[in-house]
Amino acid sequence: xxxxxxxxxxxxxxxxxxxxxxxxxxxxxxxxxxxxxxxxxxxxxxxxxxxxxxxxxxxxxxxxxxxxxxxxxxxxxxxxxxxxxxxxxxxxxxxxxxxxxxxxxxxxxxxxxxxxxxxxxxxxxxxxxxxxxxxxxxxxxxxxxxxxxxxxxxxxxxxxxxxx
Length: 164
Prior knowledge:
By secondary structure, this protein is mainly alpha-helical. It has one domain: Up-down Bundle (Four Helix Bundle (Hemerythrin (Met), subunit A)), CATH 1.20.120.450. It has five helices and two strands, in the order ααααββα. The chain has helices at residues 3-26, 30-33, 44-59, 86-106, 125-151, and strands at residues 115-118, 121-124. Strands 1-2 form a two-stranded antiparallel sheet. A hairpin with a 2-residue loop joins strand 1 and strand 2. Helix 1 runs antiparallel to helix 4 (86-106). The longest helix is centred in the last third of the chain and has 27 residues, at 125-151. The radius of gyration is 17 Å and the shape is globular. InterPro entries: DinB/YfiT-like, DUF1572.
């Protein structure tokens, strides 16, 4: 396998996911970032904080330590109590994505077949990466959907707008 081709493709695809989330929140107020569609549902703030927390945990020392770090407080990712505004959220978000992209770019061909652990479960590195990017794309889809729900007719399409 040519790791560079895979990494370049994955980084382009995931950068596009990052942009979708960012273009969504650019259309929303800080108050809307905290809105939850229903009891027990996640707000955009919570989804972004969860993605960031998961990314930093999974991709810090990716090849050498379990992806579920002992220092991660996953339950706290699902609380809005620490919301300090969009600027702080985007700082956490950007650091997490940088960790993800840096880790992918640091991998060599031989690393993709190595065994890594997530919650003490063994995976090949490539499978662990693929598992996570699907997880992140699911949550980005939720972010976009919530944004569309909130903006209704004011929603600005993130792709090709429908002909009306």
